[in-house]
């Protein structure tokens, strides 16, 4: 018998009309996923041509209307706008009377919890913060990727089960995040996902410069294995010249990067120093080898800062 606790059917949201304010990459995908669960998208707002194309692709036949009209038509409203836009949008909707009592108002910002929706709460709305820990493309593949995707969930205690039920209906896995921990939670995701894209893009560019014709094919198996090992074993998965204390190799890397891709030097040094610190703390980097390695990194940092040589921070 399964021991996984399923939501009580009494806590499952009724079939709802769904609206989307902000037809970026996230909103239409979530609405399309809710539609598969039996809910009914009825309105979407979007200003740019790209937003309208996404809405037409993922929510065909759903009318594009102004935000206030979205709230008038929908019982469940997804506010899928950039983080910095969200507080002003919520305040404006509440002050203009667009928010209706009993309306479920859901934002998908990773940074904010439920308190950013307080103006709408005072107008009688039911506030939920449901952040999918996923990168979106604005295409139908996003709906498929929601299967098994973790969502950072924050809501008033009395709405917790309803929030988690909505996530499960979208195929996701709810993970409760306390209000005060939302910025840290979001920083962790940005550190892992956003910076990963930058690192991979830089590695591909360097491989092309080195003459590799298919850097994606070369990196795919390597990075896939590294990610799998890191998720399974954490710092024990560290390998490479920094973890081994190969100071000469690291110095050669820095010299080559200065010559061929100077914009990558600062990032390489920062990640190498962080890797060295973690390798030392976990007994992977021998202390007797760490001194020379850290000296190479410190010298590289001095040159990047412009205190040695001719290369300044903007160089």
From TrEMBL:
Record-linked SUPFAM superfamilies: 6-phosphogluconate dehydrogenase C-terminal domain-like (SSF48179), NAD(P)-binding Rossmann-fold domains (SSF51735)
Q: Which InterPro entries match?
A: 6-PGluconate_DH-like_C_sf (IPR008927), DUF2520 (IPR018931), NAD(P)-bd_dom_sf (IPR036291), OxRdtase/DH_put_Rossmann_dom (IPR019665), TM1727-like_C_sf (IPR037108)
Q: Boundaries of each DUF2520 domain copy?
A: 149-275
Any one Pfam family match given in the protein's UniProt record, by short name: Rossmann-like
Domain called Putative oxidoreductase/dehydrogenase Rossmann-like: residue spans:
12-132
Looking up PANTHER family in the UniProt record yields: CONSERVED HYPOTHETICAL ALANINE AND LEUCINE RICH PROTEIN
Its recorded name reads DUF2520 domain-containing protein
Q: State the organism of origin.
A: Streptomyces adustus
């Amino acid at each position: 018998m399964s021991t996984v606790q399923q939501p009580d059917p009494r806590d499952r949201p009724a079939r709802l009309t769904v609206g989307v304010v902000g037809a970026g990459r996230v909103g239409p995908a979530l609405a399309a996923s809710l539609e598969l669960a039996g809910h009914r998208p009825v309105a979407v707002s979007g200003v740019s041509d790209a937003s309208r194309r996404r809405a037409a692709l993922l929510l065909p036949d759903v009318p594009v209307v102004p935000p206030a009209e979205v709230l008038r038509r929908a019982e469940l409203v997804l506010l899928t706008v950039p983080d910095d836009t969200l507080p002003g949008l919520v305040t404006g909707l509440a002050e203009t009377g667009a928010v209706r009592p009993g309306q479920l108002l859901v934002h998908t910002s990773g940074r904010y919890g439920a308190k950013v929706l307080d103006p709408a709460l005072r107008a009688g709305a039911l506030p939920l913060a449901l952040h999918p820990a996923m990168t979106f493309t604005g295409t139908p593949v996003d709906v498929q990727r929601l299967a098994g995707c973790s969502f950072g969930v924050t809501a008033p205690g009395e709405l917790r089960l309803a929030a988690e039920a909505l996530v499960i209906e979208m195929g996701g896995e709810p993970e409760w995040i306390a209000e005060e921990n939302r910025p840290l939670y979001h920083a962790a995701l940005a550190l892992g996902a956003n910076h990963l894209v930058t690192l991979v893009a830089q590695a591909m560019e360097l491989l092309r410069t080195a003459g590799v014709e298919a850097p994606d094919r070369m990196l795919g198996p390597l990075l896939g294995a590294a990610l799998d090992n890191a998720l399974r074993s954490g710092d024990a998965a560290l390998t490479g010249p920094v973890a081994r204390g190969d100071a000469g190799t690291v110095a050669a890397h820095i010299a080559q990067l200065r010559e061929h891709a100077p914009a990558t030097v600062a990032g390489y040094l920062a990640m190498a120093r962080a890797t060295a610190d973690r390798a030392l703390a976990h007994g992977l980097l021998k202390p007797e080898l760490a001194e020379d390695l850290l000296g190479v990194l410190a010298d590289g940092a001095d040159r990047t800062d412009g205190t040695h040589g001719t290369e300044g921070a903007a160089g």
